[in-house]
Records
---
Amino acid sequence: MGRLVKNTELDVETVSATQVLSNNSPVLTVANSTFDNVIYVAKNGNDANDGRSLATPKLTIVGAMAVASSGTAVKVASGTYNEVCPIVMPPNVALLGDDVRSVFVQPHSSTPYADIFYMKGGTYVWGITVRNFTAKVFSFPPDGSAGLFFVSPYIQNVTTFASNANATTVFIDGSLADPLSTRGMILGFITCINYGGKGLVMQNRAYSQTVNLYTIGCNVGIDVYSGSFLTLNGSDCGIGNIGIRATGGVSQFTGNVLGTIN
């Protein structure tokens, strides 16, 4: 026959998050996956989460950008993200996808004709594919809020897919940045598969240093006009009507001749 034993003393021991193991690996908790200045986005997330840990990710990139501040890295897990566009990136914020072939961004059905990303000074985008868009993927905000900056936005390791005459991967309008700023974007390893659209467009004294830009099926691969300046290296136009087009210029200075000397 069994005996009933009553314990009159309770031993309490604090267990840290790293001590809770599953198959010899720490169980994912908020305590052991939170890092300063990092916001996580994942398909199993929720925009009501704070996004500050792997255990509490945001669901959308828009949700992450709403709480991001200068110095923040937004890390996006693999998946397809239907975003209410445009996505405004605050200054000095980085967007890092898991991989260009596993992170897909496209406009939500409620914003099918919107631009995708509005870039500001010091912003950085890496490792994503943008598809099914009908406007500009990367550009300055049209309201001029890019302001004065001396560190240009940097876009790297990105692919775009579209089938629309208005689809443009990168649109740099120098008039939308402060005249004293660089008025430019830095581009590297970008593939633009925009059937009937454009790859890179620059206007109004815009500036860009571009390496490994590949345009496929674009009506115009690269369009540079109204005083813009482009340095281009290691790039290619595979299929399309026009590879590179430069048109016109602007008069930057005016005045009167007061006299001449030998």
---
Amino acid sequence: MGASEAAQGGYERLESIPSLGGSYVAAVGGLLGRVKEVGADSLPSGGLEVAGVRIDPERLLRFQRLLGDTVRDEVPSVFLHGIGFPLALALMRRRDFPLPMIGMVHLSNRVRHLRAIRPDEVLTVRAEARNLAAHHAGVSVELVTSLFVGGEPVWEGVSVYLAKGVRLKGAPRVATPEHPAFAPGKTTGRWRLDATTGRRFAAVLGDYNPIHLSAVSAKALGMPSSIAHGMYLAARALKSLAPHGTGYAWDVEFMTPVRLPGSVEFGVEKTEAGWRFAGWDARRMRPHFAGEVRALGSAEQETPS
């Protein structure tokens, strides 16, 4: 992987999408340095960019089959997230990124899938970090990934992560919010996830975070067991709810992790703009995730920032 001169707009241009596996190895190697406090202006300026990115049709086919999705000439939104995710991770690996990559908690995603994207289209991928914010459990940050075709914005995703136990210098303490008692909706499906779910998803999308791969690797990082990828859960929800042949917006918030092996109660509710969905643990009565798929509003169709 090499880097050229900075691209226009303050983006450092890389020659290719970096390896996710290399990012995790490097991050685990840096676990000894513990971050306790960061400044509000400590995020690196600019971002990273890779041009000429082509979609691997065989990898796309394996993704669609893994999810039980219909094989069609249109790229699923979570697969597009997977194309840009290694670039966001490479940004988090940089020496000037203030937060530790390993141990970050994935809180939510907001995505604008601006139009249908064909598998043969050539992409430019950009990633940047923004909006360090105080959180009641630490400091949150937004990792923004944008995809372009011939200069046209076609997809933008904002992933929000939490660095637990880190303080934002000078920020007032954030009170822990009160949550209403969990009230599950109507079950419309039940997902049974075996112990290999994380490894199979990693093999397709490349996200080899140790907390998803096995009980042994998860426990080495302080987890009681391996957990499902958040984006696997989002992809399972979207496969039947996302419209085809058009743009749309979706978001998802993650609450409690899905331990592997395990099962998820899944529920869907129709709204004026699209669908709401949620997943929960019926035995412990805990929410796992909740989100929405909707038509793009006029403001959401504007060029990504």
---
Amino acid sequence: SIWWITDSAGRLEPPVHGGFDGGDGVFEGDDVDGDVPVGVRFHWDVIDADHARWQQSFSRDGEEWETNWVMDFTRR
């Protein structure tokens, strides 16, 4: 499980659940976009020993996912 806390709301959000298979991790749960309930998916790609990518996607129907946030990580 991955837990998220927002500084704007100051509260711990419901977790997303999932896991890794090799270098690919998928975690899903429930969220809201404004006032609209949505599914949320966190997708982790381990690119190599020094690089990873995290993406967040929302879905209103559980079938089509729209990526709305991407972060790339590099080890120092």
